[in-house]
Amino acid sequence: QKAAVEAALTHQVSVIQGPPGTGKTQTILNIIANLLMKGKTVLVVSNNNSAVENVAEKLNGEGLGFLVAKLGSVQNKETFIANQPEHPAMTGWKIDEQTTTKNLAKDSLQAVSQGFDAQLKQAKLKAEYDALLKESKYNEMREDNQTEDEWLNGKPSAKLMKLLNRYQTMVENGHKPGLWFRLQWAFSLGTKILTFLNRKATDVINSLESAYYFSRKTELEQELESIASALQSIDIQKSMKELRSSSLQLLKDKIAKRYNTGQRKKFTIKDIKPRTEEFLKEYPVVLSTTYSAKSCISKDMVFDYVIMDEALQVDIKTGALALSCAMNAVIVGDDKQLPNVVGRE
Known about the structure:
Elements: H1 2-10, E1 13-17, H2 24-37, E2 42-46, H3 49-61, E3 68-70, H4 74-82, H5 98-141, H6 157-172, H7 179-189, H8 193-196, H9 201-232, H10 236-259, H11 276-282, E4 285-289, E5 303-308, H12 316-323, E6 326-333
Parallel strand pairs: 1-6, 2-4, 2-5, 3-4, 5-6
Helix pairs in contact: 1-2, 2-10, 5-9, 5-10, 6-9
């Protein structure tokens, strides 16, 4: 989710995909929050109203529903115009000491980033470790794998693998390791390599493979132990709560300074297009179906961002029209979902 938000804010077009329950809606909300902090406008579209309604409900739950305009169909516009919200009471939204809150948000983000990076690295190393154990077990079962070259164990695995690859290539091409080749590797792995590389090719390869498994296994265990120790010193859940709380405080402070200035402007349906600039200042988040997206605002203006939710359900024609409504696009969906079904006319 963190990577998806960062990609959305730094690329003109980004794609967020994942199955249900992976937090796509939460990611959309985080993107919207960041865009509001930057004073940007955003159009959120989907093939159906339920997806965008979900976004509206979540923003409303944080007290930010008054920034959202549900447009699209004529009925939606009429309903919205008839129920234009007033500015809420923003008592307590303004922050007296911004520096403290900003520092807390910065420190929390750093802790969360370190924790997530460590967890990701841990998962990758564990997967490699499990695969290595299976390979080494198979290697030990082979009848020709009888080696006593324990002096190779503990040598850097990267060097052992490099030597193994170069040696195998040499043997496959019908060559034997010359003196210069053996001297080069003697500097890296010790003088025993001089005589070792003159032995029978199968013995050399088996010994290098066994030593690689031993060394890499040891390296992985040490790395995993180091990461586990680092993760113990980071309370990711606590840092995430602090990051969310401090970020929301900063956002509400900015919103309060911008909107808590008196009577709110009202609009009629006929006002929206000729007064689009004023309208988007009052309602920087606009919701619509993809079909009606193009008719939301004046044809002479575009949104800063369009977020297309459940994108796989959107047909190409209306999707292209919706994407043309903004300077930047974030496409969200599940690529394992059934695609849009095109009806016959």
